[in-house]
Design a protein that fits this description.
33% of the residues lie in helices and 18% in strands. The chain is globular. The protein has 240 residues and is of the alpha/beta class. The chain has a single domain, classed as Rossmann fold (3-Layer(aba) Sandwich), CATH 3.40.50. The protein binds fructose -6-phosphate (F6R). The site of fructose -6-phosphate (F6R) has 14 residues, from loops.
């Protein structure tokens, strides 16, 4: 794993954007794996700005999101589809049919999981995956205890994850209890992974990722076995 140390969130976003833009320019048909949450918001802002100023094109880019809440339609302001449209997809020249987020309001979430995994395989997998990390070590919504062998699946969110995400909802009760997430194996198939870690609330997670045991109780630990992972971490996350 390569670690890039930066001062703060803005510098993290800037560095991540430089890397993304370089990759997209070198491979205009790149398959991007996208994440939601606070960590990549600054990156997406930079990508939009760059598109407007330098016209980096996304015409042939395909995107695949990590996860979606079960029970929320893409029009729901708290759905990850909505988040992605607002933060990035509506603001660059992506062909909307090339953007993929698991469907959260489907009648058959189990079938949606196999369909999504199939979709990833049909398109040759993700070239560059962006990740954030939960303070409990989750990546995507793969909560502690998720099998390292997992493909896209349904997960019950832990109380700590629901509490952490309640900031986007009006109350904790509104946060869905389940989600569809790419599995650990689906994520590990990405050719390259970029993990963004910012803020002192992520200090413990980062040190466990770097120094703890590699096991399913801390899902992100598997990243230590991936051949091409870059972490961009700020001073607050790195601590003293
Ligand atoms: C988001 C996702 C999650 C987040 C993680 C960190 O699609 O899959 O794993 O990356 O919960 O969230 P933030 O960035 O809000 O701290």
């Amino acid at each position: 794993m390569k670690i890039i140390k930066v001062k703060n969130y803005d510098e993290m976003s800037q560095k991540a954007a430089e890397m993304f833009i370089g990759k997209i320019r070198r491979n205009p048909e790149i398959n991007l794996g996208l994440a939601t949450g606070g960590s990549p918001v600054g990156l997406y802002k930079q990508l939009v700005q760059d598109h407007q100023t330098n016209h980096t094109s996304y015409k042939k880019v395909k995107t695949f999101n990590l996860d979606e809440y079960i029970g929320l339609s893409g029009e729901h302001p708290n759905s990850y589809r909505y988040f992605m449209n607002e933060q990035l997809l509506n603001h660059v020249d992506l062909n909307k049919s090339n953007t993929h987020v698991p469907l959260g309001d489907t009648e058959n979430p189990g079938q949606q999981c196999s369909h999504y995994e199939q979709l990833l395989k049909e398109h040759g997998g993700v070239d560059l995956q962006i990740l954030g990390i939960g303070s409990n070590g989750h990546i995507g919504f793969n909560e502690p205890g998720t099998s390292f062998q997992s493909e896209t699946h349904i997960i019950e969110l832990t109380p700590s994850t629901r509490e952490a995400n309640a900031r986007f909802f009006t109350s904790l009760e509104e946060v869905p209890t389940h989600a569809i997430t790419m599995g650990i194996t689906s994520i590990m198939r990405s050719k390259e992974i970029l993990l963004l870690i910012s803020g002192d609330s992520k200090q413990d997670a980062l040190s466990q990722l770097l120094q703890g045991a590699i096991n399913e109780n801390f899902p992100a630990s598997i990243l230590r076995t991936h051949p091409c992972v870059t972490i961009i971490a700020d001073e607050a996350a790195l601590g003293k």
